[in-house]
């Protein structure tokens, strides 16, 4: 299979669902919904929802009930986190995905509220009877709990706190690893686990896929750190070298660019080995792992 074709097909499906189910821009309050859609539909690779879909496919050939709502709830969380990350009180970024950041267009207050609304809407989608029709109630509760755990105080938000507290400090490698295990890794972990749970994974399958997710979560962050050093604004859709400007220690600071790339490749090799018990149905996950380190943005 061609991973680029797979990613493009799934991205189109995810974008179609997001566009159809998210409130229209002319829905009152219109400014809020314009702001939400501005960031949500601004493009992006849709890696997290695609990971959820691919994890489900690795477990079961049949499409699980509610899988698109589950997958796209992750994109809502991710988009809200980007809007809030870009705020002046956080990373103070001017550009995201090649466009002015949300607060530059709609103001800080509306950007905060748009992020709040996207976060809340993620849980709405996972609990809506029409979007989750056919999903067993017990499984649905597990999915909602995974989303909360991966995105909340012991997940992504906790990692953001660790990240802020580490700025302009001479942190050690274990501290850096802990930051990114939470800030980036936990939502990726949630994506893979949610797809697997939606598809009815066994305990063994879920354990193997969790290990895979943790390895590629680290690889994803290392690749991001390398791109921040080596990428151009055109490739990244935002200004490069922002980590160093903010006094953030990154993997290239510890290992050098080539050493960091080697570490990311080692993570991918380990991740793929976790899928040894899966057949060809897990090929998208295997190829996604390598795509994560080879990407340019």
Q: Can you give a write-up of this model?
A:
This is Geranylgeranyl pyrophosphate synthase, chloroplastic. Belongs to the FPP/GGPP synthase family. The chain has helices at residues 3-21, 30-40, 47-59, 67-85, 102-106, 108-127, 137-151, 156-166, 173-183, 185-198, 203-230, 233-236, 242-245, 251-273, 283-294, and strands at residues 95-96, 99-100. By secondary structure, it is an all-alpha fold. It has a two-stranded antiparallel ribbon. Strand 1 (95-96) and strand 2 form a beta hairpin. Helix 3 (47-59) packs antiparallel against helix 15 (283-294) and helix 4 runs antiparallel to helix 10. The longest helix has 28 residues, at 203-230. The chain is globular and about 50 Å long.
How far is it from the N-terminal to the C-terminal residue, by CA? 22 Å
Topology as H/E string?
Answer: HHHHEEHHHHHHHHHHH
| Count of helical stretches | 15
CATH architecture assignment name: Orthogonal Bundle
What is the number of beta strands? 2
Tally of domains: 1
- CATH top level is Mainly Alpha
Question: From the alpha-carbon coordinates, what is the Rg to the nearest angstrom?
Answer: 18 Å
Find the CATH superfamily: Farnesyl Diphosphate Synthase
Structural class: mainly alpha
CATH topology: Farnesyl Diphosphate Synthase
Order of neighbouring strands in the sheet with most strands: 1-2
- 3D shape: globular
| Main sheet record | 2 strands, antiparallel
Cofactor: Mg(2+)
Pfam families: polyprenyl_synt (PF00348)
GO molecular function: (2E,6E)-farnesyl diphosphate synthase activity; dimethylallyltranstransferase activity; geranylgeranyl diphosphate synthase activity; metal ion binding
Organism: Nitrospira moscoviensis
